């Protein structure tokens, strides 16, 4: 019976994670560079479809509650607060926020990290329930992936602007020569 209960919890957790992945994929498609390279009509149709899919995905509610003692509850609140503070500073200093997130992520990793580890955050996370530790790590992975995708989009945009400026400059020079 215990194995059935654990299998149910694992299946529900997998559905929660699948929902997160779907929402991230839909959001990624909506903000894709490729969306700029299609016609207005196609873009509008894709956005409508994406919004419909987003709405349908959000109607799926799956909740796996974690049993926590008061100390674990406090540790989870503290860890969430630390991450939220870093996220709130994204727009002010993206590079610093990214490196801070990396040190938080390293604190959650069982592997030898490539960079610095936030020891204080690590001790907070260790105080959390095991399921919460996994959720914190997944949240940090998602945030880092979103930053990476944003960096790529910005670089592509800058590259395309640079290429467009260069073409415009060449066209202008050829007209005057």
Summarize the structure.
The protein is mostly helical and 177 residues long. It is built from six helices and no strands.
| Number of separate domains | 2
Query: Which structural class fits the helix and strand makeup?
Result: mainly alpha
Radius of gyration: 22 Å
Rounded mean pLDDT score = 83
Number of beta strands: 0
Count of DSSP-assigned helices? 6
N-to-C terminal Cα separation, in Å? 84 Å
In which range does the helix fraction lie? over 70%
The biggest beta sheet reads:
none
Q: Which architecture of the largest domain would the CATH scheme give at its second level?
A: Up-down Bundle
Query: What is the overall shape?
Result: flat
Please give the CATH class of the largest domain. Answer: Mainly Alpha
Which strand-content bin applies to the residues? under 5%
CATH fold assignment of the largest domain? Methane Monooxygenase Hydroxylase, Chain G, domain 1
Uncertain ranges: 164-169, 171-177
Assembly state: single chain
Succession of helices and strands: HHHHHH
